[in-house]
Structures are given as C-alpha cells and as structure tokens.
TrEMBL record:
<protein>
    <submittedName>
        <fullName>Molybdenum cofactor biosynthesis protein</fullName>
    </submittedName>
</protein>
<keyword id="KW-0501">Molybdenum cofactor biosynthesis</keyword>
<feature type="domain" description="MoaB/Mog">
    <location>
        <begin position="14"/>
        <end position="156"/>
    </location>
</feature>
<dbReference type="InterPro" id="IPR001453">
    <property type="entry name" value="MoaB/Mog_dom"/>
</dbReference>
<dbReference type="InterPro" id="IPR012245">
    <property type="entry name" value="MoaB"/>
</dbReference>
<dbReference type="Pfam" id="PF00994">
    <property type="entry name" value="MoCF_biosynth"/>
</dbReference>
<dbReference type="GO" id="GO:0005829">
    <property type="term" value="C:cytosol"/>
</dbReference>
<comment type="similarity">
    <text>Belongs to the MoaB/Mog family.</text>
</comment>
<dbReference type="InterPro" id="IPR036425">
    <property type="entry name" value="MoaB/Mog-like_dom_sf"/>
</dbReference>
<dbReference type="GO" id="GO:0006777">
    <property type="term" value="P:Mo-molybdopterin cofactor biosynthetic process"/>
</dbReference>
<dbReference type="InterPro" id="IPR008284">
    <property type="entry name" value="MoCF_biosynth_CS"/>
</dbReference>
Length: 162
C-alpha cells in the first residue's frame, strides 16, 4: 500500500454510552470498547454515560471532539421511541461514511440474522475527526470496534485530514 495512503496517526478515542436505563456500573458495551482500544494500545481520553436526549448527546459530542479524534457512540441507534442518537448526530456530520453502516449490518446479519434491520448504525466526519454511532449491546459494540473501527481508523483519519 502507498505509504501516503495511510499515515501513522495518533488515535485518541472518546466513548459515549447513550442509555436512559444503564449507569456506568451496568455499562458493558462502553467497557468492551475501552478494553479493545487498550488491547490495541489506543488511549481512551473520554468516557461518559448519558441519557437518550438530543441536546445532551450533541453537547457531550462537542466535549468529546475536543479530547479525541475518534468518537465511538454506543446506544440509542435503534427504533424505540426514545432512541435518538442518529437524530442528534447525523445532522452534524460533514461527510457520511455510508459504507460503515452497510458493512456493520452485513457482519451483524452473520451473527443475528434479519434482526439487523433494526440497526441504524452510521458514521461520518466532523472537522477531520471520525464519529461512529453503533448499537448499545456488548456484542454489537465489540463487532463494530474490533472488526471495522480499529482496523480502519488510521486510514479514515488520514483521508479526513488531507
């Protein structure tokens, strides 16, 4: 691969857990993401659990973007009445990474079958930083982080900052 295609980027992660029912103590998805980042020697510089609320999600995303160049938001991506992560984040994305959601759903299909249609997982770029919105289950968080986000984050950030 052309060395200019993927730069050696210092990746810093922020993890946002969106849940109206879980506390930090009960969070498994965010902790799994942190563990996978640690195993990959990628620092997690911000971690928070906040409720499903558009204004709170947007406010906390601004905080996270000041601390990290890769924000992983887990939870609130489904279709229940209180799921609003996508509504909070999508309007702020300057570039959408549609392939992320497509690949995540494809990989999810292998694990959970047609239930994957309930996932609205998405990703994009804000000011040269990557933002991923993934489901709140531990298995989904692990799949997205391990199989897609961590292998591609340097590539994504290289292109986002050209």
């Amino acid at each position: 691969m052309d060395p200019s295609h993927v730069q050696d980027v210092a990746v810093h992660v922020a993890v946002m857990v969106i849940s109206s029912s879980r506390t930090e103590k009960e969070d498994t998805a965010g902790k799994k993401i942190q563990s996978l980042c640690k195993d990959a020697s990628i620092p997690v510089d911000h971690y928070v659990v906040i409720p499903d609320n558009i204004e709170k999600i947007r406010g906390e995303l601004q905080v996270a973007l000041k601390k990290a160049n890769c924000v992983i938001i887990t939870g609130g991506t489904g279709i229940t009445h209180d799921d609003c992560t996508i509504e909070a984040v999508e309007p702020l994305l300057q570039k959408c990474l549609t392939g992320f959601g497509e690949l995540f759903r494809s990989k999810s299909f292998e694990e959970i079958g047609t239930r994957m249609v309930l996932s609205r997982a998405t990703a994009g770029i804000i000011d040269g930083k990557a933002v991923f919105c993934i489901p709140g289950s531990k298995n989904a968080a692990e799949l997205a982080t391990r199989d897609i986000i961590l292998p591609e984050i340097s590539h994504i950030l290289t292109h986002a900052n050209r």
